[in-house]
Specification:
Keywords: Membrane, Transmembrane, Transmembrane helix. The chain crosses the membrane at residues 37-55, 75-96, 125-147, 167-189. This is Beta-carotene 15,15'-monooxygenase. This protein has 212 residues and is mainly α. It has one domain (3-211). Helices cover 92% and strands 0% of the residues. The protein is built from 7 helices and no strands. The protein is elongated, with a radius of gyration of 25 Å.
């Protein structure tokens, strides 16, 4: 049983005068825990950004594009990358702003509102990242199909043999791989952010009891 549970237990048992003190202590504890959770959300998002940036530096996509002679495709990938960086940086700034606001809040209602806002921001962030992973994977398959010489046999089969059946099988395989890939990242995000969001929601429910 943690300190918050002990305070709640004492709050229910003792006199009315003690309830007022305990209610304040519970709020302070929830405030502190909420601030800590949002700080971890910020830290994880920054680390995630650093990891992706490091991966992009280690695996130079320009070299791969040149080998495939897919320079026409390069501009679209760069635009997508810059847009993604800008959006992710905006989310990180939003997490920082939420952390700064929650850290200085003195009102129960305002803390509740900012907890809900933070949870929504994290949910949007996760869905955005999953969407980008989906789009990037599909674009990767398209680029490989159009420019990779190893795909010539598949192109020939589509053009000269059972084209409809081959296309259907190919699309199904690509979609299956993409769904599995996105599903893997969904599990990772659920582990990273899901636990923190559940704790934040639990804090919100406790604050709602105090605010009644």
């Amino acid at each position: 049983m943690d300190e918050l549970d002990l305070l709640k237990k004492a709050w229910k048992k003792d006199t009315h005068s003690f309830e007022q003190v305990t209610e304040t202590e519970i709020y302070k504890m929830l405030h502190k825990k909420s601030s800590s959770i949002v700080k971890w959300i910020l830290i994880i998002s920054v680390l995630e950004f650093a990891v992706w940036a490091g991966v992009n530096l280690l695996f130079n996509t320009d070299d791969a594009i040149q080998k495939l002679h897919a320079e026409n495709f390069s501009i679209y990938l760069k635009i997508l990358t810059y847009i993604n960086y800008a959006v992710v940086i905006w989310f990180i700034y939003s997490f920082y702003r939420n952390y700064a606001k929650i850290s200085t809040i003195t009102s129960t209602k305002q803390l509740m509102q900012d907890i809900l806002k933070t949870r929504k921001t994290v949910q949007y962030y996760v869905w955005y990242n999953l969407s980008m992973i989906f789009v990037s994977t599909i674009l990767g398959f398209i680029m490989a199909f159009v420019y990779n010489p190893k795909m010539d046999a598949l192109k020939y089969k589509i053009s000269h043999e059972n084209g409809y059946e081959t296309i259907t099988i190919t699309v199904c395989i690509i979609l299956a791989i993409t769904v599995l890939f996105v599903g893997l990242f969904w599990l990772i995000y659920r582990l990273l952010y899901g636990i923190l969001l559940r704790k934040l929601h639990a804090n919100y429910k406790e604050l709602k009891k105090i605010d009644l």
